[in-house]
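re: the backbone from monday

yeah here it is again, tokenized this time
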């Protein structure tokens, strides 16, 4: 009887979780949930706040941020990247706190010469320290259709997903003295800007302004995360049914996800800071010697 009640409670919890995820996904509204902090003339919003686009021209780029701050959960954006010759452009999607010792979790999409693949640049900052770059090519054309880019962040790990496939993991190894982003709330950001001093072939290929404006389009944004108010760190970290991100199911990658991660790393990873001993004078960061997942 006790086992039956436990199973029933679990099933009810799963139903409520799925329902809440659908509600939150449909509930996003740009006008309520986001604000433009840079280049409002290059922002377009339509479909009652469900869709938007950021553009770059030779006058300005554009940047947006979430009105709320969050501590743990998932932030998802479906993005269609700049098509054609996007060399020198950088489209970003990231989470960040503020201050000199800020935490940050990055997706950056580095533009290309027509016919060449985009580079996905990922990084993570803890207590103001970054230098943890990992880069990938993609296994699809990110300009032909919308694709889901997700940052999942909980007390155990940070995972970068593309269309549900994990491409990178950063585990919580605080017990070994490695900083982990679990104390600072972050906002969600996205922007497009001129990065032609470094973005394409190390800055050798510059932006061709004849192709401007360069536009990235967005749909189906989901802010499925814990809203943060002063003093709510313990609340967002608590292992409760409402805090689905603290469930053991999200504490590490599943066996299938581990296989997907290794497939991406073996086929499409083009740079890993853990393998760049020349850059770090023959040393690697301490987390590089610990299990990946």
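seq for it, each position gets an aa:
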């Amino acid at each position: 009887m006790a086992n039956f009640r436990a199973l029933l409670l679990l099933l009810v919890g799963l139903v409520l979780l799925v329902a809440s995820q659908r509600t939150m996904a449909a509930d996003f509204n740009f006008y309520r949930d986001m604000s433009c902090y840079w280049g409002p003339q290059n922002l377009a919003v339509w479909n009652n706040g469900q869709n938007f686009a950021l553009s770059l021209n030779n006058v300005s780029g554009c940047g947006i941020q979430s009105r709320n701050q969050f501590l743990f959960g998932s932030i998802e954006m479906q993005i269609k990247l700049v098509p054609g010759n996007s060399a020198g452009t950088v489209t970003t999607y990231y989470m960040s706190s503020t201050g000199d010792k800020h935490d940050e979790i990055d997706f950056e999409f580095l533009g290309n010469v027509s016919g060449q693949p985009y580079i996905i640049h990922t990084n993570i900052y803890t207590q103001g320290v970054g230098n943890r770059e990992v880069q990938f090519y993609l296994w699809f054309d990110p300009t032909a259709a919308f694709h889901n880019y997700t940052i999942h962040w909980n007390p155990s790990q940070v995972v970068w997903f593309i269309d549900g496939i994990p491409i990178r993991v950063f585990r919580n190894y605080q017990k070994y003295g490695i900083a982990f982003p679990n104390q600072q709330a972050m906002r969600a950001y996205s922007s497009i800007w001129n990065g032609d001093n470094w973005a394409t072939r190390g800055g050798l290929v510059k932006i061709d302004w004849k192709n401007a404006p360069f536009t990235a389009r967005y749909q189906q944004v989901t802010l499925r995360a814990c809203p943060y108010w002063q003093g709510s760190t313990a609340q967002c970290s608590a292992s409760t049914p409402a805090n689905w991100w603290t469930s053991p199911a999200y504490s590490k990658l599943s066996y299938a996800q581990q296989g997907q991660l290794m497939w991406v790393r073996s086929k499409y990873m083009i740079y890993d800071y853990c393998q760049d001993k020349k850059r770090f004078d023959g040393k690697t960061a301490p987390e590089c010697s610990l299990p990946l997942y």
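The first strand starts at residue 34 and ends at 38. Residues 1-26 have pLDDT under 50 and may be disordered.
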